[in-house]
């Protein structure tokens, strides 16, 4: 994963300190590209332990067209918890303790952090147990799954992923194998506008490659997940289309390190990358839309220990 470590170094050495939506502050560069040959192993970060199960269950959630975190909570996947919780505590129906700016306050105030954890646990419990509450406060709006599988244009609904697979199978040399999550008419209704905004597939010599354009890249927390998620997507689409895997090309717009992640990034840069693991798919006759985490296996993953850092909401 030298490509990723080179990105971190490039941002530290060449980045501009900027304000951001969360109020945390970043050091940022604009425009950067990394390439991963998927024939050389599965690009799951080895300089810090990265949870493949969370990456995979999130991607399967997208592929099913789901936008409600109830599914992720069932799968013990907390990736989107904060954005669902934020919608709840900012609603007129919420009457509990003040949760304003809960992400940063948890880091500075142990007493508040304890209160937050109770409120978050109560929120997740209600999502699981209360259908009406889950429908209202578990849904994150028309985020990735909605745009990938049911993009609405008036009376028409477009399943971009199914169309992508059909296109690759029937016209592999087409230059139109694209999927976009950036729907300008619905961005304001999303809990978080799509960071990984558009991707394109390419077939050559029996191999399937993918280039992702990511408009906003949280380099320490988000990008390692994005790399593995889209590498997994290439494997799944390739299997569905009877192709080998080629490259994953990761093109970044605003690539940034949050200022409260700098110590963690420097710790990661001090570590030596290890051999990449191998991905095994046990799909059988299943479509990629019917897979579960039990159908995916990572072998030979021996990373350095996890490095914790706060998420900016």
UniProtKB/TrEMBL annotation:
The active site is at 195, 195 (nucleophile). GO terms for biological process: methylation. It is an enzyme of class 2 (transferase). SUPFAM superfamilies: Thymidylate synthase/dCMP hydroxymethylase. Residues 2-313 form the Thymidylate synthase/dCMP hydroxymethylase domain. Homodimer. This is Thymidylate synthase. It comes from Sporosarcina quadrami.
């Amino acid at each position: 994963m030298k490509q990723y470590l080179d990105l971190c170094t490039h941002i530290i050495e060449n980045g501009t300190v900027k304000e951001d939506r969360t109020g945390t502050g970043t050091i940022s560069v604009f425009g950067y590209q990394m390439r991963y040959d998927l024939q050389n192993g599965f690009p799951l970060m080895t300089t810090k332990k990265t949870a493949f199960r969370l990456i995979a269950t999130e991607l399967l959630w997208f592929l099913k067209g789901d936008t409600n975190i109830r599914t992720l909570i069932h799968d013990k996947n907390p990736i989107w918890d904060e954005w669902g919780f934020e919608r709840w505590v900012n609603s007129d129906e919420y009457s509990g303790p003040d949760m304003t700016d809960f992400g940063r306050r948890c880091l500075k105030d142990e007493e508040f952090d304890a209160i937050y954890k109770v409120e978050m646990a109560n929120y997740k419990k209600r999502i699981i147990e209360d259908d009406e509450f889950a429908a209202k406060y578990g849904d994150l709006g028309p985020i990735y799954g909605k745009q990938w599988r049911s993009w609405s244009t008036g009376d028409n609904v477009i399943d971009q992923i199914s169309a992508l697979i059909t296109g690759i199978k029937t016209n592999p040399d087409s230059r139109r194998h694209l999927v976009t999550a950036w729907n300008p008419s619905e961005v304001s209704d999303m809990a978080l506008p799509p960071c990984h905004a558009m991707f394109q597939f390419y077939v050559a010599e029996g191999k399937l490659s993918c280039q992702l354009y990511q408009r906003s890249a949280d380099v320490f927390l988000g990008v390692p997940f994005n790399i593995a998620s889209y590498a997994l997507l290439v494997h799944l689409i390739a299997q569905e289309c009877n192709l080998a895997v080629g490259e994953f090309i990761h093109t970044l717009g605003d690539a940034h390190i949050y200022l409260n992640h700098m110590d963690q990034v420097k710790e990661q840069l001090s570590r030596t990358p290890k051999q990449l693991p191998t991905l095994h798919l046990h799909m059988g006759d299943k479509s990629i839309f019917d897979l579960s985490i039990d159908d995916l296996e990572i072998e030979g993953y021996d990373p350095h220990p996890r490095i914790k850092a706060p998420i900016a909401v």
